[in-house]
Amino acid sequence: MSGVTIIGTGRHVPGAPVPNDALARVMDTSDEWIQTRTGIKQRYFARDGQGVSDLGVEAAKMALDDAGIEASDIDYIIFATMTPDYFFPGSGPLLGAKLGIPGVPALDIRQQCAAMPYAFQLANGLVQSHAAETILLVGADVHAGFMPWTDWDIVRSEAEREVARDAYERATKHRGLAIIFGDGAAAMVLRDSQTPDGGFIGAELHSDGNSFDHLFVPGCGFRSIPYVTPEALLADEHIPHMLGPSLLKKAVRTLSKTVRSLCETHGVSQDDIDCFIAHQANERINQAVRQALHIPPEKIPSNIARYGNTSAATIGILTDELRRDGNIREGDLLCFLALGAGLNWGAALLRL
Fold first, then answer.
1. Same domain, yes or no, for 10 and 143?
2. Residues 187 and 211 grouped into a single domain
3. Which residues pair with 19 in a beta bridge?
4. Which of 108, 174, 256, 303 lies at a 20 to 30 A Cα distance from 116?
5. What angle is formed at CA 121 by the lines to CA 115 and CA 125, rounded to 5 degrees?
6. In this structure, are 184 and 250 located in the same domain?
7. DSSP-assigned beta bridge partners for residue 340
8. Residue 99's closest CA among 144, 65, 143, 48?
């Protein structure tokens, strides 16, 4: 029996790269401090008015071209993001309209950084049930609106001046989160592989709302009336709150356990896996997972240094780079693994 496989990929990031030294102009940090803790050297940020559907449409065009098909061949859209263009509607319908295919069903999913393993299982189910034949899967996030500074012209190296002390202190207060995230989009075109034992093999997925407070936005939700208040904004409750050290430990423990269990379920040896494509949240997390699973370094590539954490886009961006550079090829067995807010986590096996 075959499953969905990847027939085209694309990626897009906005504007010019923002190096660590640029962040050091608006808060107390340094290139060395950031690299030591995260492995990140630079990231990209969208401009005001630029949303995930704008980034996603560029990645989608690239993926469609790679697959050698037209947008009109797409009969289902899955859009993964935690930073939609609007609170509602979702960004999937906006993407479809911008691609010139209004009317195609578009589903938004909210597993944050863990979206891709979930999306592969969902896409495979849609194809196997004959609800779809050609699926456009897009993961995109724009985190710029979360950033704790207002001096964007300084961050973008468009101005040189001293930052006000209160603004500097505010940004520094949130630097543990602010240094991690970047903006970007990735797209994949999925179809049934039509090759026995090819394509999607299986996924193991989990969620645990008991640990929601490890990474969440404390304000601007419908537990409050109104759902956005001046007091919440003044208290920076629109900025995510993260329990970094505890999140790292949970990620290493849960991801290594999940990968082992998934391989055992499907009778796959870890040695048979050609490439482990992990969510790019923090280089320290991925190195710890690699060590826990005894994965050779060359089998778990990383690109977080150049992009930062683009949440739902990280796995797709890395997959596109690996395909275009010839580092993953037809017939390769891939393991995708990720953990994100929720908490959600999981792993998926797919043979190209």
1. yes
2. no
3. 42
4. 174
5. 135
6. no
7. 344
8. 65
Q: Which residues pair with 10 in a beta bridge?
A: 187
Query: Rounded to whole angstroms, how far apart are CA atoms 255 and 37?
Result: 20
Residues 17 and 104 in one domain: yes
- Same domain, yes or no: 94 and 220: no
Residue 162: DSSP 8-state: P
Longest Cα–Cα distance of the chain, Å, equals: 63
User: 137, exposed or middle or buried, with CB in 10 Å at 0-12, 13-18, 19+?
Assistant: buried
User: β-strand 333-340 against 241-242: which pairing, if any?
Assistant: unpaired
Rounded Cα–Cα distance for residues 351 and 346 (Å): 17
Catalytic machinery residues: 113, 279, 309
CB atoms under 10 Å from CB of 196, counted, come to 8
Residues 68, 18 within the same domain? yes
Same domain, 178 and 44: yes
**Reduced 3-state DSSP string for 260-285:** HHHHHHCCCCHHHCCEEEECCCCHHH
What pLDDT does residue 194 have? 87
Which CATH number goes with the domain that contains 239? Answer: 3.40.47.10
pLDDT, tens only, 49-99: 999 999 999 999 999 999 999 999 999 999 999 999 999 999 999 999 999
- Predicted pLDDT of residue 197: 84
Give pLDDT < 70 ranges for the chain. none
Rounded to the nearest angstrom, the gap between the alpha carbon of residue 129 and the centroid of all alpha carbons in its chain is 27
CB < 8 Å & 24+ apart, contacts of 259-266: 259/293, 259/335, 259/337, 259/347, 260/293, 261/204, 262/202, 262/203, 262/204, 262/335, 262/347, 262/348, 262/349, 263/335, 263/349, 265/202, 265/204, 266/201, 266/202, 266/349
Say how many C-beta atoms besides its own lie within 10 A of residue 14's C-beta: 18
Q: Are residues 205 and 167 in the same domain?
A: no
Q: Which of 130, 162, 192 is the last residue of a domain?
A: 192
Pick from 205, 234, 208: nearest CA to 219: 234
Tally of domains within the chain: 2
Phi, psi of 311 (to 5 degrees): 55, -115
Amino acid 244: pLDDT: 86
